[in-house]
Amino acid sequence: MKCLHTLFKKQVLFILVGFSYVSATVVSTSPPTSKVKVQSYDYVAGKSFTGKIYVKNIDLTKVVSVIYSDATGDWNNNANLVKAAFSESISDTSYEFWTFSSSPISSIKEFYIKYDVSGKTYYDNNGSVNYVVTTPPPITTTSSSPTSTVTETPPTSTFTAFPSEGISRSAMIRNINPPEAAKGFIATSLSTSGPDYYYSWTRDSALDSYVMANDYNTTLKGDATIVGLLKDYVTYSINAQSTSTACNCLGEPKFNADGSSFTGAWGIPQNDGPAERGSSFILIAVNLLKQSSDDTYVTGTLKPGNFINYFSVKFSCNRCGHI
Ligand SMILES: *[C@@H]1O[C@H](CO)[C@@H](O)[C@H](O)[C@H]1NC(C)=O
Ligand SMILES: *[C@@H]1O[C@H](CO)[C@@H](O)[C@H](O)[C@H]1NC(C)=O
């Protein structure tokens, strides 16, 4: 039995994703009348300075530079410089997009663009006042407590948290016994098109029932609804194992809502499903014996012959047949 259980220790994975949005400053959204013009730029102190520039295609050889001053206004004799590079032609115009991306720069106050072509130099310095770089408020780290808290402003983040465990569980329960389905049908999804996942995959249903069986022994001890759903699942699954299938093998991966086998094209067999179903049956049996006095159901309905045959052929696991 133990060897069955170790096959799929369930793990709940919480994914925490942090977003840090810095939206680029957009200067101009269409090609200019001048020879060179900033389209947009984005500066993150100590991290990146990137941008996009409209450049008129005057000659093959062009040099486009971004020249910036540091926070104190020092231009370093115009040697604070990032080279831009050709990115793409803008169709139906005589302009191209050039882009730049610097290595980390600790501070920038202003910048302008210098465009050298055919022995001439053109500038975009925002009408001679330069482009002003507004640095977002610094990240403040509070280190007075052992677990430091980081506050980042501004982002108006559209971050949505990973669905909570509660939401996932109620969604799982919602997919069991949908209207007009055979008792114990656990839909992998209620979606019937784009994609159509309205089937009971042996694997998915087994994992759901494994969670429910575990709940029955822990947070939902003695819960009649959960026992009912588990027994429905057992009924559906026993039927699935004696239903004729396209491959006529126990590794048939998915079944229809009415309990019949899916006969379309699919990757068959899928041998993990029956093993997971067997493991769930065992957990249901063990926990029913522990939490209820329903021995008859366990020895009558959940008897090994109803689920273990395929499993014992596939894996040599001597102790698996013993509940
Ligand atoms: C360009 O200059 C104007 C003043 O003429 C200023 O208000 C504006 O913020 C500058 N644009 C950028 C992106 O720095
Ligand atoms: C079920 O819960 C009991 C305690 O009530 C515990 O002894 C037993 O190990 C649990 N069963 C499983 C399979 O975890």
From TrEMBL:
Keywords: Carbohydrate metabolism, Glycosidase, Hydrolase, Polysaccharide degradation, Signal. Residues 28-134 form the CBM21 domain. One of its GO terms (molecular function) is glucan 1,4-alpha-glucosidase activity. It holds the Pfam family Glyco_hydro_15. InterPro entries: 6-hairpin_glycosidase_sf, 6hp_glycosidase-like_sf, CBM21_dom, CBM21_dom_sf, GH15-like, Glucoamylase. GO terms for cellular component: fungal-type vacuole. Its EC number is 3.2.1.3. It catalyses: Hydrolysis of terminal (1->4)-linked alpha-D-glucose residues successively from non-reducing ends of the chains with release of beta-D-glucose. Residues 1-24 form the signal peptide. GO terms for biological process: polysaccharide catabolic process. It comes from the Eukaryota. Belongs to the glycosyl hydrolase 15 family. This is glucan 1,4-alpha-glucosidase. It comes from Mucor saturninus.
